[in-house]
Amino acid sequence: MDKKYIAGIFESSGHITFRKDIRTKNSIFPVIIINSQNITLLENLKNIYGGSLKKGKYSSKLIISHRKALSFINDIYDFLLFKKEIADIIIDFYNVRFTRKYEAKRKKDLVRKFIQLEGFEEKNTKKGNGSIIKWLEEKE
Fold it and tell me: What is the pTM of this model?
């Protein structure tokens, strides 16, 4: 499958978000979600990049997370037009490492930058224990 085509699919019907790990409660990871009615397309992408496929009645979604998300972004990065800044955040999230003492602060700064770029409003974010906003407010 052509990487330009994959980048176009991602830019039109995909998005990136961060999720909080429910097991550890203090780590987060990037998630790429691609929605489509074409299940064959999503299955082909799953075979290439991994992830999980959730089939719905009218459309399905492919969920790619952790380092698989980084691999996906690295493959299509050169062909991105509109989501390049957000892709930069995902790349920085994994490529630059600090000592354990400063790692949490660095990741929180990257997530704040992501939220600012995406223009999330307070009403659209989760408030519970799995909340990224709550994670950001925790003492570093």
Answer: 0.78
